[in-house]
Amino acid sequence: MRIRTAAAATVGTFALLSFLTPAAHADTKKGDTTFTSLSFSRTTVNVGVSATQKLTVTATAKDGSGIKEIYGAKLLSPDSRIIHTGSSTCTRPSSTTRKCVYTYNLDPDRTDYYDLKNSSAGTWHFTAEASSMDGDFYDLQNSAPFKVKRYARLASTQASPEPVVKGHTLTVTGTLTRANWDTNAYAGYSGQSVALQFKKSGSSTYTTVKTVSTDSSGKLRTTVTANATGTWRWKFAGTGTTSGATAYGDSVTAR
User: Fold this and answer.
1) pTM of the entire predicted model
2) Average per-residue pLDDT for the chain
């Protein structure tokens, strides 16, 4: 049979992905060959500007006649960047199944094709083809998605004056940055909504007081009325291409 070398994608928590996910390019198959399970060590991989992040994908395929091999296991990015496995181990749990464990390296600081670019952030896919002993196959194309995101950071929250007179104005500042994979440096993330949260002294729960947008340099600045002693912090929920982030809080006494 003809073996297609379909490209795939990469990026949490260990997760079993369903094959019912809607696909732009549907999987194709012949006969009773199927992937019975597919799991990722992380469903979202947040990558900074230097450290390589690893992703492990475990795929198990089955066919009544037995699985000959699982071919062409790759990760495919939104900008069509293909990441090949760094290492793989395959076993035969039974006469009808084949199980393979693949390890991939996501590196933002390389000098070759595999170097991540800003355009690589978003939804990736794992692709592979299982081929059976009797010529059947399952070509996994787009039903195994995961996220690869640019790592975001929030500088420690700064609130002043400290202490503050109860009922008076408190100024709170911060800075949101994210990894720029094109320059391998962190840069201000502009135009993003960031929650300013407060935890009253003696409480264990933060409550959002207001939402503030970052300026062109990623900086945050706002004023609030200080009604109680407690801790202030910034929290960013993240986007489809950028991770969330939470700043260290700043405790302020209101007298």
Assistant:
1) 0.86
2) 90
